[in-house]
């Protein structure tokens, strides 16, 4: 710093000497012209570097002006009293002009710095809006802050969680206590601690966090601006987390209600048939053995159906809350499709349901229970959205190392703008939402099961025709 100042002073003095040489030796000019030349050089020096360099140049210029251009020339004396006034005026003008020029330069620098600070604050506020959920919000926030303000190190301490988030070296260990103390109160002025500038972050009178910044010097307004933006970011993240928790609770409640309604509806048919069979047996103890066995077979079959419904309901609740675990075993898709159709004969009623499978389908690995559940959801969806006399087709094939299952119907079709959303949980298209009962869970669960098998569920739909296609790997022994 001192060396740079010395160089600037030397250059300034040399500039005055150069003007003196040119005016005295190279080009003979009068004293007035020389005075304006000196003044111009001093103004340039003041606007380029500052007041100190300009003041020293003014003194040197006054001495040179006296020695070389005011009579008696070659001596530091003045014979004409009027020249004393001229020399004093020149010196005062040079110093005042250099001072004003230096002030203007300082103000311009301050304005540029303020603009730069505003641009950084704006860039930081925009960066906060782009923070995703891939990493903790506090960590991403402090990284964005360090990036936008060119900090060598920064630490964020959250008062509610007690978590530290830092970027750069050293870490928060050496200022942890200071950050905790500052975060416990609001209105605390920024203070220096172990090379960091510690700043309180709060919302109104409520303390939220504290910041430790290292690497640049900032004005107090900028620090307060940063603290306010960090407070807004933390509050926004807290509000988003709360909204997500509320939405999760709402969907959990909706799921619980949906499952209860579905179970109540689904359980009525097998329970009615079981009750009818047992009532008939109790009311007629002497009925023939063949008729008795027939009633017992109906009761047993419906009890098995009821057990499957309960298992499906439990499975649906589990699939919606935890990671789907796949337990593959060798099975035949033809048998799976026919089992699904048999288990849903009460729902099928007058629908002509056709099972179309390639001849001699080989056994392939998949989770039988989960795949049945997925196909049930697709078949139930097809039955709900087609008329009673409209055919529904189920097909299966294995080719090119893939298991392909399709469920097709000839209903009204799915509008193109809805096809990208039908696999979302609880989504129901506006065209059918108030016309056909449903929960909006079936397709979501089917899609989750297929993805757990490392497969894909797609929809191909147009007016009068819709196909849901399941494609999953068919390589024996492949880990699911």
What does the secondary structure layout of this molecule look like, with pairings?
Layout: H1 2-26, H2 31-48, H3 51-69, H4 81-129, H5 137-148, E1 153-158, E2 164-168, H6 176-183, E3 191-193, E4 196-203, E5 206-214, H7 220-283, H8 289-321, E6 329-331, H9 333-343, H10 345-348, E7 353-357, E8 364-366, H11 368-384, E9 392-399, E10 402-409, H12 416-419, H13 442-452, E11 456-462, E12 465-473
Parallel strand pairs: 7-9
Antiparallel strand pairs: 1-2, 1-5, 3-4, 4-5, 6-8, 9-10, 10-12, 11-12
Helix pairs in contact: 1-2, 1-3, 2-3, 2-4, 3-4, 4-5, 4-7, 5-7, 7-8, 9-11, 11-13
Structural class category: alpha+beta
Q: How many distinct folded domains?
A: 4
What is the count of β-strands? 12
Trace the largest sheet across and list its strands.
Answer: 2-1-5-4-3
- How far is the first residue's CA from the last residue's CA? 67 Å
Poorly predicted residue ranges: none
Oligomer: single chain
**CATH C-level class of the largest domain:** Alpha Beta
Major pleated sheet: 5 strands, antiparallel
CATH topology of the largest domain: Heat Shock Protein 90
Average of per-residue pLDDT values: 78
CATH architecture of the largest domain: 2-Layer Sandwich
Summed up, the helix count is: 13
């Amino acid at each position: 710093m001192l060396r740079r100042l010395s160089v600037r002073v030397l250059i300034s003095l040399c500039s005055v000497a150069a003007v003196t040489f040119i005016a005295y030796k190279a080009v003979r000019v009068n004293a007035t012209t020389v005075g304006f030349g000196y003044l111009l050089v001093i103004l340039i020096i003041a606007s380029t570097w500052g007041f100190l360099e300009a003041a020293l140049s003014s003194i040197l210029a006054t001495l040179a002006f006296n020695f070389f251009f005011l009579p008696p020339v070659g001596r530091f004396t003045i014979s004409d009293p009027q020249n004393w006034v001229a020399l004093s005026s020149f010196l005062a003008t040079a110093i005042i002009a250099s001072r004003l020029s230096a002030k203007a330069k300082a103000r311009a620098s301050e304005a540029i710095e303020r603009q730069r600070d505003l641009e950084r604050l704006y860039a930081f506020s925009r960066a906060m809006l782009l923070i995703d959920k891939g990493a903790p919000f506090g960590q991403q926030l402090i990284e964005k802050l360090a990036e936008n303000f060119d900090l060598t190190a920064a630490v964020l301490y959250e008062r509610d969680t007690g978590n530290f988030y830092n970027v750069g070296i050293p870490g928060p260990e050496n200022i942890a206590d200071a950050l905790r103390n500052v975060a416990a109160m609001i209105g605390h002025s920024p203070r220096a601690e172990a090379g960091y500038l510690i700043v309180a972050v709060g919302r109104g009178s409520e303390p939220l966090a504290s910041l430790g910044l290292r690497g640049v010097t900032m004005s107090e307004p900028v620090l307060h601006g940063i603290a306010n933006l960090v407070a807004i970011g933390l509050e926004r993240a807290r509000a988003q987390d709360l909204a997500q928790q509320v939405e999760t609770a709402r969907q959990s409640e909706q799921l619980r209600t949906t499952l209860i309604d579905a179970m109540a509806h689904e359980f009525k048919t097998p329970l009615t048939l079981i009750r009818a069979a047992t009532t008939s047996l109790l009311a007629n103890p002497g009925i023939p053995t063949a008729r008795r066995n027939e009633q017992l077979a109906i009761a047993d079959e419906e009890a098995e159906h009821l057990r499957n419904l309960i298992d499906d309901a439990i499975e649906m609740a589990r699939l919606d809350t935890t990671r789907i675990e796949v337990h593959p075993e060798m099975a035949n898709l033809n048998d799976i499709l026919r089992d699904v159709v048999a288990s849903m004969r009460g729902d099928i009623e007058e629908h002509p349901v056709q099972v179309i499978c390639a001849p001699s389908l080989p056994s392939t690995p998949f989770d039988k229970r989960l795949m049945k559940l997925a196909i049930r959801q697709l078949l139930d969806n097809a039955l709900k959205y087609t008329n009673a006399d409209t055919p529904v087709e189920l097909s299966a094939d294995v080719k090119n190392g893939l298991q392909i299952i399709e469920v097709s119907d000839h209903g009204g079709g799915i509008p193109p703008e809805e096809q990208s959303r039908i696999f979302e949980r609880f989504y129901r298209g506006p065209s059918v939402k108030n016309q056909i009962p449903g929960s909006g869970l079936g397709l979501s669960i089917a899609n989750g099961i297929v993805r757990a098998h490392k497969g894909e569920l797609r929809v191909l739909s147009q007016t009068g025709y819709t196909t849901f296609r399941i494609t999953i790997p068919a390589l024996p022994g492949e880990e699911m």
